[in-house]
């Protein structure tokens, strides 16, 4: 927010220099980012009237002019195309210095003497972005009544300082010059003078020119007020108004547009003027746009609208996007003779969403997207009419039409003085509290127990007791509140069991040579189709986002596998021949649809591999990981999971509960992700690891007696699970059989088709004495018998 100090002086006495003023209002909560000096390095430039223009005798593109500067007539040769006899212009005389670094000397152009130079806005140091519309076309043309021979710095008001103030979102009342003047008045303990707003002369009746104002989308518009001004004379606004706009960072356009911008900067209420003669009828409506409706805005861009956008319309077509920008077809131009002036209060959230959706942000939308009060809309409308009348730009028609909220009753907020000390930590007398609040126009009184405050319309941010305490604190002066150490009880922080488990899993994964990836929690619903997930699976019971970044990020993930495969696919497509990835992250499941409660979050571990790896490499990683948590890996074949290869997929079980799945990816899924390699993937429920983990380590003495090892190889059907065979072997004599390890599986020559040879190494040990061969033979034979009984196993 740019706040010119000389503009604020219209409403409050300011005797401080800019630096002191900035320091004081910063200490009361209005942070000043910088101080801008608008003084230009200009010397010996005065106003002059052109009294004669002649064609240069030796140059077709030059003219010779005579200029009256009050004390003498000077001759200037120029190539400017926009000057004529009678124009009053800035004249830089011999010896003049200009902000662009130019020093003026006596010169001759094609043999004709030139005693100075006419000046443009650019040559006088004005930034192009605030140069009046058309001001870049040549020499600056001043108002007809500008006195001649005067220093151009005095004529243009090129002096003073501008404060660049950071305005927080909750203080839209400060996003204007009067609002900041009110803050300055309270800070300096000066009187604040709100501008006297009164129209001197109104003619006719508005009902003769316009019929009706309607609000159809009442939830998006609190107030809509229109006035009519006739006998419009489009032209330049007076120099004082142009300079005020330029100092505040806005480009002057014409007198009507400048008035609406001036009022917006002065009072914080955006306005818009329509050419009434371009209206199709005499009704204006605030309504939702129709889906696919097109409006060409003032910047001559076609905007496609939808039903969530509020538009201003007549009965036939939209004429503006509410709170953002008006329409091109009803724009004010040099032929405008009658205007309809709109002043309205819109739903701030709707304006913010509209501005973002159509990619258009204006000075009006920057204010309308904050909470504004409908009462200010009426005040600003009258102020604009007053200024149009004051500068002679038109005649105000009597009366106004409006719809929406009418009556205004100030809200009341109570404050307990004892609470002020509890929050601020300082003792402030009650009368000082009331004085501070009253200085801010928060009319307050004390009833012996509490302070009662009437909140004015422009302070929409004052809603509860703590807001009043903040006002008292900043007016008391934050620098006067002594810093004290926080008194509290410190509690030793620690990570949750889940977080500790996740961290340990990550360290195990890295130690096993895997690389961690991190992906978004948002996925595309199409990615679940690529995984061939069944429609009735809980994985397809996902949560849809209301405001997604796009289709690819429109639902919350219920599995990590889709993101893992996306990452693997990208690496494969870039020529990476081998990867070992893992991710630990949350998945999200709704408690019910539609979602009314926070979803259930489940932490999962996903492992993805391709390259020189097989099913058993992945199984080994899972086995080592679970062993670190004291969990014994139990796997069982899974044949009905469409994401995985039917014969190379296993479930991970603990206490007969499945906590995960792993295996080789189904060829169709590999094709969906454009991976031309064998892919191995696993997904495990981390919270189940937390539930079943047992990291208590029990140590025992090394065995005193030697072990005996025997190998056994049997032929069984190829669909018999090795894990089931190991369980049967161990159960034969758990006290003596110490370990069973598979060391070979063979299918091929000498093995009947449909069968396989499995070879185990069995370790026997008695903890109390040395085993004898006969004992081991007996157990070994018993093992063979049990394998035959359970699996029709035949010794090779």
Summarize the structure.
With 796 residues, the protein is of the alpha+beta class. The chain has 20 helices and 39 strands. The radius of gyration is 41 Å and the shape is elongated.
What does this protein look like?
- There is one protein chain.
- The protein starts with a strand and ends with a strand.
- The protein has six domains: 2-32 and 166-188, no CATH class; 43-156, OB fold (Dihydrolipoamide Acetyltransferase, E2P) (Beta Barrel), CATH 2.40.50.140; 202-404, Phenylalanyl-trna Synthetase, Chain B, domain 3 (Phenylalanyl-tRNA Synthetase, Chain B, domain 3, 3-Layer(bba) Sandwich); 411-480, 2-Layer Sandwich (Phenylalanyl-tRNA Synthetase, Chain B, domain 1), CATH 3.30.56.10; 497-692, BirA Bifunctional Protein, domain 2 (2-Layer Sandwich); 708-795, 2-Layer Sandwich (Alpha-Beta Plaits).
- The model has no long low-confidence stretch (mean pLDDT 91).
- The chain is built from 20 helices and 39 strands.
- By secondary structure, the chain is of the alpha+beta class.
- The longest helix is centred in the last third of the chain and has 19 residues, at 773-791.
- 26% of the residues lie in helices and 28% in strands.
- It is elongated, with a radius of gyration of 41 Å.
- Helix 5 crosses helix 6.
